[in-house]
Every structure is written in structure tokens, then in C-alpha cells.
Amino acid sequence: MTAPRVLVTGGGRGIGRAIALRFAKEGSRVVVAARSSPELDAVAEEIEKAGGKGRASQVDVREHGSVEGAVWRAIEFLDGSIDVLVNNAGVFEIKPFEKLDVATWKRNMEVNLDGPFYVTMEALEALQRSGQAHIFNIASRAAKQGFPGNVAYCASKYGLRGFSDALRLDLAKDKIRVSTVYPGQTDTTIFDKVPGTWDRAKMNKPEDVAEVVWKAWKSPRDVNVDDLDVAPRA
After folding, report:
1. Dihedral sign (CA 112, 63, 166, 23)
2. Nearest CA to 156 among 134, 172, 137?
3. Is the pTM of this model over 0.70?
4. CA nearest 180: which of 204, 149, 209, 150?
């Protein structure tokens, strides 16, 4: 199997960056897409140093027009096909329901759910051309279990899980695999702005999630990789 052609949203930091670099180590051509251009440029350089070919593509996944342009640029760089699509861009905010406002609710839905829909829709033809395509939707344990202060986040991630489950059925005819990934607490910059006391030393590292994604991609096509839990660190 040749090194896959990869598109990662939310690729400027954290889990997205780790996934991009994991594929780059195998010689992949990788497009990282996110809102922050300086971060993306740095990751694109890291991809090159790791042994891959990198390209940065600025995008706001909340805006369909922005997604349309970013995916078009990615497909051009990837020579017309996408083998691996990683819908990783996301937001996480803790607000008890009585303090939850419309803006926070909409932001969670637009980034965590609308974004994967827009990106997958625009990437579909390139995925269909692959012959070995695999979509990874990075969800959370909050897609399986409710947590206090997480009404908006849980709703968006449960929605992403449902999106994956139905998408898998629709794309089976194209032999496109769809995996939902369920990381637990992962030590990324997202926790820099989250109130509360967090023992980040006990959290998963972004590289743990990246390894789960890589192994699923490499697995034989008859292996069930529909739902991928990320094991907690010992």
C-alpha cells in the first residue's frame, strides 16, 4: 500500500497535528487545515522534516464557502484524491445549562457538527476516487456519556457519532470506511482555557490518538474499525 494522501482539519495543534505527523513519518502527502495560518505553516514544515509532503490550508469550518475553497486547494495538492480524511476541528467549553447561551450552543454545533458535514460533503468525490478511502471523525467519550456542564458539547459529539453511523451505511457502496474515534481527556492546549483543576499528567497525549488512527488505517479492510476507543494511559 502506498503512502496515503491525507487531509486533517484542526491540524495546527494537538490531536490534529499529531495525526498529521504520524502519517508524515510514513511518507504521506498531508494537508493540514485550520483557522490559524502561522500554526499551520509550522506544522507543514514539521511534516516535511518528518518525511512527508506538507501543505497548509486556512479554513473556518463553520463557513461552507471557506470549507469549499480549502478542500479544493487540498484536492489539488493531493493530485485529485483523498485517501484519509480526518475531521478533527473542534471546540470544548464547559458551561452549566443554566449559564448556557445561544452563542455557545451555536459555536459547538457549527464547529463540531456542521464542520465535519461541510468538509466531508466537499471531499466526497475525491474520497470516491481513492479506492481505499477512510474517514475518521474525532469525537469524544462525551459522544457516549453525558458530563456536567457539557450540554452543548455532548449534544454536538453525540450528533457526530450519529453522523458517522449513518454516513458509514451510505458510503458502504463506495467501499469508504468511516471510523468514529473516542478520545478521553487529552493533554492539548484546549485545556489552557478550561476552568477547573485538571491533572494533565494523567491525560492521554495527542500521539496516543494518532497511533489509534494510524493502526486503523493500516488494518485489513475486513477488520471492524467503526468505533475506536483510545485507551487511558496506565
Report:
1. negative
2. 137
3. yes
4. 209
Summarised one tens digit per residue, pLDDT across range 137-196 is 999 999 999 999 999 999 999 999 999 999 999 999 999 999 999 997 766 656 556 666
Which CATH number applies to 5-229: 3.40.50.150, 3.40.50.720, 3.40.50.970, 3.10.180.10?
Answer: 3.40.50.720
User: What is the distance between the alpha carbons of residues 48 and 56, in angstroms, rounded to a whole number?
Assistant: 12
Positions in the chain short of pLDDT 50: none
Neighbours of 64 (CB within 10 A): 16
- Please state, as a whole number, how many other Cβ atoms lie within 10 Å of the Cβ of residue 120: 22
What pLDDT sits at residue 231?
80
Half-sphere exposure of 209 (CA within 13 A, CB side): 29
- Exposed e or buried b for every residue in 127-155, given b needs 16+ CB within 10 A? bbebebbbbbbbbbebbeeeeebbbbbbb
- 10 Å Cβ neighbour count for 20? 30
Question: Catalytic residue numbers?
Answer: 153
Task: Please say whether the beta carbons of 70 and 58 come within 8 A.
Answer: yes
